[in-house]
Design brief:
The structure is a single chain. This protein has helices at residues 15-22, 27-39, 46-63, 74-85, 100-114, 118-146, 150-167, 171-182, 196-217, 232-236, 270-281, 312-315, 319-327, 340-343, 346-353, 392-425, 433-439; strands at residues 91-92, 258-259, 289-296, 355-359, 368-374, 379-384. It is an alpha+beta fold and 463 residues long. The chain folds into two domains: 15-259, 2-methylcitrate dehydratase PrpD (Orthogonal Bundle), CATH 1.10.4100.10; 267-384, 2-methylcitrate dehydratase PrpD (60s Ribosomal Protein L30, Chain: A). Strands 4-3-5-6 form a four-stranded mixed β-sheet. A two-stranded antiparallel sheet has the order 1-2.
């Protein structure tokens, strides 16, 4: 949460004070420097970049069939929207939001036209993620509270850097592309639970690539449109008076803060889902459940409140549905568990109706507590902190299992195996073309088809 430093009990520094020291030449220039600093660690963080790419490829291939084909919007738009439509893409809590959806889409879009090798794509991913993290730490929480969607607003900046690095930009070019991309920055929380959420994510990636193309053509920004007084950030939120988070001045890179989703739902529901699965493991039977209380922290409690959702997109933002599914042994680890047919199951609806929602300021971030009272008056409670990043070695088997579940139905076993091999083990000098060829599956939906998901949105209480 963004707190006004003047009203907090401890004398914590304001973001404005920290930024004055970190960014004497302006925020666009500072973010460009952060990207360059991250690139100095490219070799050490190659495994992180490979993991981000593997997870991203899985959600893109699984998500693309959920959207109409619109080739005129470009591959950056297409892939970023597909990466985000299932809400199964990774999370970066610095943001707070989803960095890879836009960043990888932009890097690969430029690699398609330049023939860049995989190593350069990884550099774009590393630098773009760094900018997403730093900009998120700077103003993401304040934007979120104002009703903006940082995945999209900050995603435009991050994707412009990812594209710029693949083009070979130096620090001056990166400062220009960030400033230019900031003028396209947009995206609102009111889209949560609707197709608009992935739409604005696709737009962010597309706009970032366009900004990079403009710099290639000779455009230069001689003004820090992003961070100057009265600039884009000031228009979006009162971020300067917020308390400075510790990570703002932490050493680069921040890609290690990536959290890979294990449920195809809003991240704010994940700790609650884990609590419910834990209670089931302890012996609770769904048929014996009488009442359920789900308690969340204030940051996310108002965005996952949809009751009795009828579409998959709505269900992703319904913590009552996610907990009910998990208690019934059908946690949304499998995308198909969110189908409208399964959502209409009477047993699931009964559990949903038994859920009461509560808020507890002592729960930080996406932490949750689930209390279940059985018919015999016995009560069981589980509490979880928000999911944290996994060490690289622990993440590989989890990511491979998720990737296979998402990609085998699309590319078949051999295609999925080949894509995983290229992403995981191909040398950096290898052309990225094989990755993009496998992503451009011939079974892509035809232009003009209707998407599977309704455009109905849910109230967020934010915008």
């Amino acid at each position: 949460m963004c707190e006004n430093a003047a009203t907090t009990e401890r004398a914590a520094p304001r973001i404005a004070d920290v930024v004055a020291a970190l960014a004497p030449e302006g925020i666009s220039r500072w973010l460009a420097g952060c990207a360059v600093d991250a690139l100095n660690h490219r070799d050490s963080y190659e495994p992180h970049c490979r993991q981000v790419l593997l997870d991203w490829c899985g959600v893109v291939l699984a998500g693309r069939s959920e959207l109409p084909s619109a080739p005129g919007l470009g591959t950056a738009f297409r892939d970023a929207a597909a990466a985000h439509v299932l809400d199964y893409d990774d999370v970066n809590n610095d943001l707070p939001g989803h960095a890879s959806a836009t960043v990888v889409a932009a890097a690969l879009a430029v690699a398609r036209s330049t023939g860049a090798p995989l190593s350069v794509v990884w550099e774009g991913v590393l630098a773009g993620t760094e900018v997403a993290s730093r900009a998120g730490l700077l103003c993401g929480a304040a934007q979120y509270e104002r009703g903006w969607h940082p995945t999209a607003t900050i995603g435009a900046l991050a994707s412009s850097v990812a594209a710029g690095v693949v083009y070979g930009f130096d620090e001056d070019d990166l400062a220009s592309v960030i400033a230019l991309a900031s003028l396209q920055s947009s995206g609102a929380l009111v889209t949560f639970g609707s197709i608009g959420k992935s739409w604005q994510t696709g737009c962010a990636a597309r706009d970032g690539v366009h900004a990079a193309e403009a710099v290639v053509a000779g455009y230069r920004a001689d003004v820090d449109y992003l961070g100057r007084d009265g600039g884009v950030l000031d228009l979006m939120a009162d971020w300067r008076r917020c308390e400075a988070p510790p990570g703002l001045s932490a050493p680069a890179p921040r890609i290690g803060q990536t959290v890979y989703k294990q449920y195809a739902t809003c991240f704010a529901t994940h700790a609650a889902a884990r609590c419910a699965e834990e209670l089931v493991s302890s012996g609770i039977r769904a048929d014996d459940v009488e009442t359920i209380t789900v308690t969340l922290g204030p940051q996310f409690s108002r965005i996952v409140t949809h009751r009795a959702p009828s579409t998959s997109l709505q269900a992703k933002f319904s913590v009552s549905t996610v907990v009910a599914m998990s208690l019934a042994g059908r946690a949304p680890r499998a995308v198909e568990n969110l189908s409208p047919e399964r959502l209409a199951d009477p047993a699931l609806r009964r559990l949903e109706r038994a859920v009461a929602l509560d808020e507890d300021p002592s729960l930080h971030g996406a932490a949750a507590r689930v209390s279940v009272r059985l018919a015999g008056e016995e009560t069981f409670v589980a509490q979880r902190e928000e999911p944290a990043p996994m060490p690289v070695a622990e993440a590989w088997p989890v990511l491979r299992e998720k990737f296979s579940a998402l990609v085998v139905p699309v590319l078949g076993p051999s295609g999925a195996e080949e894509l995983a091999r290229v992403v995981e083990t191909a040398p950096g000098a290898e052309d990225a073309k094989r990755v993009t060829e496998l992503l451009d599956d011939p079974r892509e939906p035809q232009s003009g088809r209707s998407p599977k998901f309704s455009s109905t949105h849910i109230p967020t209480g934010k915008a």
